[in-house]
Design a protein that fits this description.
By secondary structure, the chain is of the alpha+beta class. It folds into two domains: 184 residues, Phosphorylase Kinase, domain 1; 111 residues, Transferase(Phosphotransferase) domain 1 (Transferase(Phosphotransferase), domain 1, Orthogonal Bundle). The chain contains ten helices and 13 strands. The strands form four sheets. A five-stranded antiparallel sheet has the order 4-5-6-8-7, sandwiched between helices. The radius of gyration is 23 Å and the shape is elongated. The protein binds adenosine-5'-triphosphate and magnesium ion. The site of adenosine-5'-triphosphate (ATP) has 19 residues, from strand 4, strand 5 and strand 6.
Length: 304
């Protein structure tokens, strides 16, 4: 999907981007931007708008719909194109490469630059948006919360967490952010879920994860979506990624979310390595993380 955009990028012209960013402007006010308003938003003549609409629609960057009026909106691909254009202008990236992962609410690609990096397009709100849209049909579109607002907020939150935590906490190095996209260091290694640890490594790796969660907490964040799918592991250690839903450590739900993170992480190790990780006192472990007293998982294993 985005790879199409990446290949399309080369033959998009400046005026195509005027149209796309004009639509983006218009979508702040309504879901479907009236055709007649486009020359003003895009700062193009009417004929030019017509020509650009055709080019962009054929490339799947925009969609058209006739309601009480003829309206247009950006597709995710169109929004992707705008973000890619900005990164290219800032010389953050040279091009988009192979997919690195497709998550529930994101698409991650390798990007080329002076070194390999990862580009994450947030998709939060999109599925929900389509559902809501189906029901709501043509009513009160001034009340809409657009999917790209939700996706952009998620990207901003994730980027902010990475900027705060890096390099104190082992997270991907943040490089750039625009709209619903972030560029970060490309991680080496595999997801913890796909790794098989030797017995002797299990407790040290488990401890390492809680040390990072403790550091994150002390630096102001609870991850709030911890799982074996959001941890990379290699011979040098572990890296925790996927931070859009992180909450500030002084948030009213922070303690509860931290406890859930601890529980989920412990649960994974207990299921996969029952001989190494048995009963764990979750409350005591959570408290130790908060109090900067965590020094290893052993102290919280209920062993006789
Ligand atoms: N910096 C990175 N370097 C290499 N691969 C990455 C990087 N960030 C993400 N990935 C890959 O992309 C996948 C999806 O990324 P991520 O977990 O951040 O989003 P997500 O899975 O959509 O979020 P959620 O966990 O809410 O579904 C990861 O599982 C991982 O394989
Ligand atoms: Mg994930």
């Amino acid at each position: 999907m985005v790879q199409n955009v990446a290949t399309e990028m080369a033959d998009l012209e400046s005026e195509d981007f005027y149209l796309l960013s004009g639509l983006e402007q218009g979508m702040r006010f309504s879901e479907w931007v009236a055709r007649e308003k486009l020359p003003e938003f895009a700062r193009l003549t009417d004929e030019e708008v017509e020509y650009r609409l055709d080019r962009c629609e054929r490339r799947g960057l925009i969609e058209r719909k006739t309601i009480q009026y003829v309206g247009y909106r950006l597709t995710f691909e169109g929004y992707d194109a705008l973000a890619l254009r900005t990164f290219a202008e800032r010389e953050t990236i040279d091009g988009v490469g192979a997919p690195l992962g497709v998550g529930k609410e994101s698409d991650v690609y390798e990007v080329s630059s002076y070194k390999p990096m990862a580009l994450k397009f947030h998709r939060e709100g999109y599925t929900e948006f389509r559902e809501v849209n189906k029901e709501r049909k043509y009513t009160a579109d001034h009340k809409h919360v657009s999917w790209f607002y939700t996706a952009r907020k998620a990207a901003e939150r994730e980027y902010e967490a990475l900027e705060t935590l890096y390099p104190t906490v082992s997270v991907p190095r943040p490089i750039d952010q625009n709209r619903h996209a972030i560029i970060m260091e490309r991680l080496d290694g595999v997801e913890l879920s796909r790794s098989k640890l030797e017995s002797a490594q299990v407790r040290p790796v488990c401890s390492l994860i809680f040390e990072e969660l403790a550091l994150a907490y002390q630096n102001g964040f609870v991850h709030a979506d911890m799982s074996e799918y959001n941890i990379f592991i290699n011979s040098e250690g572990i890296t925790i990624f996927d931070w859009p839903q992180a909450v500030p450590a002084d948030h009213e739900n922070a303690d509860e979310l931290l406890k859930r993170d601890v529980k989920n992480t412990v649960g994974y190790f207990q299921r996969k390595y029952p001989h190494e990780i048995g009963e764990v006192t979750i409350d005591a472990l959570t408290d130790a993380i908060k109090a900067e007293e965590f020094t290893g998982i052993e102290a919280f294993l209920d062993e006789e």
